[in-house]
Write a structure and sequence with these properties.
transmembrane beta strand, mainly beta, five-stranded mixed β-sheet, Immunoglobulin-like, 15 helices, transmembrane, 1123 residues, 22-stranded antiparallel beta barrel
């Protein structure tokens, strides 16, 4: 039944896609540049204003109509106050009335009404014979070189002489020599130019620095920044473009305070942790992703060049409207679209470069390694040396062989290419884009890597009171790598000293006394492959109907359809003198398909009462449904000659099997928001979501998640007028609300059953069986009560902005499975058990200076968060993690490290005899000495300390951009000010467990009588009592200060002069050099301090080591061209 339902939905979706393509194609065909304009006589408005500034009157008309006014603020503010009371009167007569009272002149161009000053008296002017009039022509552009259609150009003091730019930004006006032309456009700073003898004047207008006028994307809508009362940080496209990144998550690193992005390694296609404001749950801490208003979708499938803005919702005031999934914050992504009244614009962005592996650690010389092996053996009490003096002499004379770890890596190409076409008419816009990203693997052998193809089409159309938009995106992602584990490959390559080789002169892959069964080079070159092919179609169509001047209805239907395939084949590789890889020649074929459907219906009301009270209300309902189905086939015994699976003669029927899985969940919601604004000074907002999830039992599956927020522009008070004039704006805001988390499995409230092939053996044959998962019928939401208080300030007419926030979040009913012994036979479902506090703060500041020849921008953000378990029902849970343990206990942060605390070293025999020691161990001078917490003279588990937390604290990002004439420099740095990193295994212990036989340069700081304050204890072979004391007792020796500062990206570019670019047939052309990961400053210099021990679920993880795919240093060349 479920399969039939899935098939029906797919057919329905395909019909929708066909209809969408037909409609969007037709709509694009209808776009023209000479559409019939709305007549001022046919638009009616009602106004009731008394002694109001003209600016306020015009803004009120904008709210009630689709027209926008363009004017010079200085001219408008120096006009008399206006009183007007009309009911359903034509806009033309209203403007004529305003004109008669204020001596302002109005001129309609498309949907923009340009305002200029008219003379109230006849002025004496010089006759034509006394003045030289010039026909001035030119172009008005924005600061990116794009034309500004509809910009106002007037002669100062002569209101009858004015014009507007055409679709290409061109204008023509007659002016006397010495006259002043005033250029203005909505959202841009006005500019005045004195007319000399020149007949051509081209002008570039800079974006207005008033941050309060900025439009911010919020949940289910937009707001001006001055009225935003939640903790919302919006990142513009300028911070995302031009960086050599393969995924959208990488592009977001460091651009927003407390938006924490961590990689576990740099392998193409590797997972990335994305987190907002730290850790507040034991489960998945990933934020909710919303793309173009549709919940869900993979952020890393997006093309960064398609992104217009990213809004990060951090508190309950901004995120509660997303309810049960907003506990970890929300990331709203808005893609680009065309502009109205603009001709087709073709844009190309390309970036090509080379990734070079960066090895933080370095082994000692081969002969040196042999000498240290002898020392380690001697300290362990062995009488015979591991290497003879003759062997060491030969090693020294022969020199080092190539380190295996470097031999299996190479430089690799990375390239990004994006092409888009955009434009629009009076009532429509369009954007079509295509992108190609290719990051080659740095592993040697057959070509591997990450490739992504993106296609997008965004269209909008208006038909009177009805607006329609459609967005359709297709992505194909291919990830091809080797058939083995990258971590194991790196471990094997790392642990071989510099006196072995991987190949002999005959091309045979060699094994040795350390790698007795494997050869990393052979596996990479001939051991097979694993290939992922992911296809994704994501889209939505929305319609908006203006029911009245104050009320709109909007409907959205979105979908996300994906099909993922993973095919892997292991081929046999023979090693010499012994060892075989891939002897059973496995073949795996896994397929997974899924469909997400999202439908929304909303009513939005906006009304201004008595010209002081503005109310904005939103109410909506939505349904989300997710279905997923997977199947896998696993087969052995491939043809050794052809390397293909045998399909006809299976030697052993147990050599192949298959499995399949399916799941479905849904969410029904009622949501809303009401905001109130008094005089643009006092703000209040209430939002809520009422969610019903299929993941919970029917009678407890509904949850209510409200929030309330207030804001106060204190700078608008009369007593602050002096401060406002001298410095700028001040707004304080605060919010409180409850957010939810439903990141649990689909059927945990029900007992579920599963089958497996090998339950037990009988008569030398495997017998299948059935198992089950226990249910928790009482499972329900996590709830996070969140408080936030903040302030937004700007200075120097908006050139300098500052945002401050403090938050306090308490999450209750934490979802965590109970601990059970391994012999229990199965795992238990999640239970609501625990309460966690997460507190922190963040600061963001930006300074902008724009001049004709020089401009620069500086942006800095700094943030911190700290969590603590408040209630875990008295339970203390210790989980082993490599040499240490992690703790879950009341009063401590999540996953705090637990181990012994070192107290230096035993320096002599007297200290050994009189000091506390682990019972039964005969320690020596140079061995670790531990703090005896209970003072009983014996070191045991009762003496363990709780140490730092692995999650980054004091995170920061810094961006500096400077442009002088055509040259520009962009610098981006980011880092962490406080973090404890666990580094394990061979990176700490020389000759680790006799598994690794390499010693590294940083380990040369070990104890000797001449080096008593070393970082590491004396050398002693595995199995010795000294080795057991030093490396098997789990201490803070494995913990390191991983604070770092990294120069993440540098760009140096040059933009061709406009005149030269136009001669070459281009509107704009910029070429630049780019570098990534150029410099790192950290106390930890032998591993990458940026790498994370954990993923976004704090239940999993492993200590850091050099076993990860190395960090890449990138050097490349980029080109941005607009036609």
């Amino acid at each position: 039944m479920k399969q039939k339902l899935l098939v029906f939905r797919r057919k329905l979706l395909m019909r929708y896609l066909f209809l969408l393509m037909c409609m969007t194609g037709g709509l694009a065909h209808q776009q023209t540049f000479g559409s019939q304009q709305k007549d001022l006589e046919s638009v009616f408005v009602s106004l009731a204003l008394e002694d109001a500034p003209v600016e306020k009157v015009l803004r009120t008309i904008e709210q009630k109509t689709d027209f926008r006014f363009a004017f010079d603020l200085d001219q408008v503010r120096n006009t008399p106050l206006v009183s007007i009371s009309v009911k359903k009167q034509s806009l033309l007569s209203v403007l004529e009335d305003i004109s008669s009272k204020t001596h302002l002149k109005f001129k309609q161009i498309n949907s923009t009404i340009h305002v200029s000053k008219a003379s109230s008296t006849v002025q004496k002017t010089e006759g034509p014979s006394q003045l030289d009039f010039i026909q001035v022509t030119g172009k008005v552009l924005d600061d990116t070189g794009e034309p500004l259609p509809g910009a106002s150009v007037v002669v100062e003091g002569e209101p009858s002489k004015g014009t507007v730019t055409d679709i290409d930004g061109n204008y023509s006006i007659e002016a006397a020599e010495g006259a002043t032309l005033v250029f203005s456009y909505i959202g841009f700073e006005s500019k005045k130019v004195v007319v000399g003898s020149q007949s051509t004047i081209n002008v570039t207008l800079a974006m207005s620095t008033s941050s309060l006028e900025e439009v911010v994307v919020v949940g289910y809508g937009t707001q001006k920044k001055l009225s935003v009362v939640g903790a919302v940080d919006q990142v513009g496209q300028e911070k995302l473009e031009g960086r050599p990144v393969a995924t959208m998550s990488q592009a977001l690193q460091g651009v927003s305070a407390n938006l924490i992005v961590q990689q576990r390694n740099s392998e193409p296609g590797a997972g990335i942790n994305l987190n907002i404001r730290g850790i507040s749950t034991l489960g998945d801490n990933s934020p909710l992703i919303v793309i173009d208003g549709v919940i869900g979708g993979d952020i890393n499938l997006l093309n960064p060049s398609d992104i217009e803005s990213v809004s990060v919702l951090k508190d309950a005031g901004s995120a509660a409207i997303y309810g049960s999934r907003a506990n970890n914050g929300v990331v709203l992504i808005t893609t680009k679209q065309g502009k109205k009244n603009s001709r087709p614009k073709v844009t190309y962005n390309g970036l090509v470069g080379v990734n070079t592996p960066q090895f933080f650690t370095q082994p000692v010389h081969g002969y040196q390694n042999a000498m240290l092996r002898n020392e380690s053996a001697f300290n362990a009490g062995r009488s015979e040396a591991v290497f003879s003096p003759e062997q060491i002499r030969q090693m020294r004379e022969n020199g080092d062989t190539e380190w295996f770890a470097k031999e299996i890596f190479k430089n690799a190409l990375q390239q990004n290419h994006n092409l888009s076409v955009s434009g629009g008419g009076e009532n429509s816009t369009y954007l079509v884009s295509a992108g190609y990203t290719d990051q080659r693997s740095n592993f040697v052998g057959p070509e591997k890597g990450y490739t992504r193809y993106n296609f997008r089409m965004n269209l909008t159309n208006e038909f009177g009171r009805f607006k329609m938009s459609s967005k359709l995106a297709y992505t194909r992602r291919l990830i091809k790598d080797h058939s083995f584990s990258s971590g194991t490959l790196m471990a094997d390559a790392n642990r071989v000293p510099l006196y072995y080789t991987q190949k002999d002169s005959l091309g045979r892959y060699l094994t040795n006394d350390i790698l007795q069964q494997f050869n990393p080079l052979g596996i990479l070159e001939k051991g097979g492959f694993r290939e992922h092919i992911d296809d994704n179609v994501f889209g939505n169509i929305s319609g908006e109907l203006k029911l009245t001047s104050d009320l709109k209805m909007r409907g959205v239907f979105g979908f996300n359809m994906y099909a993922n395939n993973m095919y892997a084949r292991t081929t046999q590789v023979d090693f010499y003198p012994r060892g075989i890889y891939g002897g059973d020649r496995n073949t795996t074929d896994e397929n997974r398909k899924g469909l997400d459907l999202n439908s929304q219906l909303m009513l939005q009301y906006n009304k201004l009462f008595s010209e002081r009270h503005e109310v904005n209300a939103l109410i909506g309902v939505s349904n989300e449904n997710h279905t997923d189905r997977g199947v896998g086939i696993y087969k052995r015994f491939t043809d050794p000659e052809l390397g293909t699976p045998i399909t006809e003669t299976i030697i052993n029927p147990d050599s192949y099997n298959s499995n399949q899985s399916s799941s479905e969940n849904s969410l029904n919601s009622l949501f809303g928001r009401v905001s109130y604004d008094l005089d643009k000074k006092y703000f209040a907002e209430f939002s809520f979501r009422y969610d019903g999830s299929s993941k919970f039992r029917e009678d407890i599956r509904w949850g209510f998640f409200p929030s309330a927020s207030i804001g106060y522009r204190i700078s608008e008070e009369d007593f602050m007028s002096s401060y406002r004039d001298r410095f700028g704006e001040v707004k304080i805001r605060s919010s409180y609300g409850v957010l939810g988390n439903q990141n649990v499995g689909n059927y945990q409230y029900q007992t579920t059953f599963f089958t497996f092939q090998n339950a037990y053996g009988f008569n030398n044959a495997a017998v299948g069986g059935t198992g089950f998962n226990y249910a928790n019928p009482n499972i329900q939401w996590e709830r996070a009560a969140t408080f936030n208080i903040g302030a937004d300030l700007d200075f120097m007419d908006g050139a300098l902005t500052l945002s401050l926030d403090y938050f306090d979040k308490v999450t209750s009913d934490i979802l965590v499975p109970p601990a059970v012994p391994g012999v229990f036979g199965t795992s238990l479902p999640d239970f609501n058990n625990g309460k966690v506090s997460n507190k922190g703060w963040e600061i963001t500041t930006t300074y902008r200076h724009r001049g004709d020849l020089f401009e620069h921008t500086f942006s800095f953000n700094l943030a911190d968060s700290k969590n603590k378990v408040l209630d875990f029902q008295g339970e203390e849970r210790l989980t082993g993690m490599e040499e240490l343990q992690v703790l879950l206990k009341e009063g401590y942060p999540f996953n705090s490290y637990v181990g012994l605390k070192r107290d230096g070293y035993f320096q002599n025999v007297d200290e050994v005899e009189n000091g506390a020691k682990p019972e039964g161990l005969n320690v020596q001078p140079g061995d670790n000495r531990y703090v005896d917490v209970d003072g009983n003279g014996v070191i045991n588990d009762d003496d363990k300390y709780v140490f730092g937390n692995p999650f980054p604290r004091m995170t920061f990002g810094l961006t500096y951009n400077v442009r002088v004439k055509g040259f520009d420099l962009n610098v981006f740095a980011q880092g962490v000010g406080n973090r404890t990193m666990m580094i394990r295994g061979e990176m700490v212990e020389p000759f680790h467990y006799n598994y690794g036989m390499t010693m590294y340069e940083h380990q040369l700081d070990y104890w000797t009588p001449q080096n008593p304050d070393a970082r590491y204890p004396r050398l002693a072979d595995n199995g010795s009592q000294s080795n057991t004391n030093n490396f098997r007792r789990g201490s803070d020796m494995y913990l390191f200060d991983a604070a770092y500062l990294r120069l993440k990206n540098v760009q140096v570019g040059y933009t061709l002069p406009k005149s030269l670019a136009e001669k070459l047939g281009m509107q704009n052309c910029r070429a630049y050099l780019s570098g990534q990961n150029l410099f790192t400053l950290s106390k930890v210099d032998f591993v990458d301090p940026e790498l994370s021990e954990f993923d976004n679920s704090m239940r999993s993880g492993g200590a850091n080591s050099a076993r990860a795919y190395p960090t890449m240093v990138y050097y490349g060349f980029g080109l941005d061209i607009t036609f």
